[in-house]
Write a structure and sequence with these properties.
Elements: H1 8-28, E1 59-61, E2 66-72, E3 76-83, H2 87-95, E4 97-102, E5 113-117, H3 122-138, H4 146-163, E6 166-170, E7 177-180, E8 188-193, E9 199-206, H5 207-210, E10 220-226, E11 233-237, E12 243-249, H6 258-264, E13 267-273
Antiparallel strand pairs: 1-2, 2-3, 3-9, 4-5, 4-10, 5-6, 6-7, 8-9, 10-13, 11-12
Helix pairs in contact: 2-3, 3-4
Length: 278
């Protein structure tokens, strides 16, 4: 998917200060990978709000820099993600998140199911990111700027609702394509800003598409990846030092600062889950 320009410098200015400090204390006491199976709340709604979770998720992953909970009921597998306002928000909006479900614990199954979301262009993503960026500035005096903050919150969610319309589904027979978020296949995904301009994502996938049954407690593996920006290809030189074209995409070198690696390359983690029974 084509992505247009994004200012790394502007991300560094506010993200380094805000992203880590705002979540550091509570993140320290949370596991990096979810440790338990969870029954989804009876009142669960795919609405981009964490009300049914009491705004508390199971794990904080320090690789992706996100909070998340995987849960299930008898019919669906659910993913709830909180993307803290900062570098993670920038990366999520511009590059998207991919949730992969593997039928093999060794992660090498050939029938993995993956959902990538959101699918938006660079110009639109930059428009969306204006709102969390503006919030960071306004919150320095949240009392004086209360009305403006409320306006930013409302306008940001209106913009997200209008802009994010599609997801990429792979590995599900008959649905292996770009799919509308308003699809008739009962795959539901919504994201919106919370009051602190963090991104909340909620996703629901029917178990029938995954080949899973709540009566089978066999573990499966999953992967959550914040996708990366397109990495420029390295120019190759011939023996005389003349350019001869471009070669394959280059991974980050050992000297690449971790912050730049996070912003420009995919970051991901694996976990294991067994469906929770009643």
């Amino acid at each position: 998917m084509k992505r247009t320009g994004f200012s790394i410098i502007s991300a560094l200015i506010y993200s380094v200060v805000f992203s880590f400090i705002s979540i550091a204390v509570s993140a320290q006491s949370s596991p990096k990978i979810q440790q338990v199976s969870v029954r989804a709340p009876a009142n669960i709604k795919i609405d981009g709000k964490l009300t049914e979770w009491d705004n508390k998720l199971q794990a904080y992953n320090r690789t992706d820099e996100i909070w998340y909970t995987i849960s299930n009921d008898d019919e669906r597998l659910y993913l709830a993600v909180l993307v803290p306002n900062g570098m993670a928000t920038d990366k999520f909006i511009i590059c998207g998140l991919t949730f992969t479900i593997s039928h093999s614990l060794n992660r090498k199954a050939t029938d993995n199911v993956a959902i990538a979301y959101p699918l938006i262009t660079g110009s639109t993503s930059n428009t969306i990111l204006m709102y969390p960026h503006a919030y960071v500035k306004l919150k320095k005096d949240s009392v004086a700027n209360a009305i403006k903050i409320d306006s930013v919150y409302n306008a940001g969610n209106i913009t997200i609702g209008k802009a994010i319309k599609e997801m990429q589904v792979t590995g599900i027979k008959g649905i292996d394509s770009v799919v509308s978020v308003y699809n008739d296949k009962d795959i539901r995904v919504v994201s919106r800003f919370d009051q602190k301009m963090n991104i909340v994502l909620e996703l629901a996938v029917p178990l029938k598409y995954l080949g899973f049954s709540v009566n089978d407690a066999t573990k499966f593996s999953y992967n959550i990846q914040l996708n990366g920006f397109p990495v420029p290809k390295v120019r190759a030189l011939d023996r005389l030092g003349h350019p001869e074209g471009y070669i394959t995409d280059n991974p980050p070198s050992p000297r690449t600062p971790p912050l730049m690696v996070y912003l420009n390359w995919p970051v991901d983690f694996w976990g294991e889950y067994a469906l929770a029974k009643k």
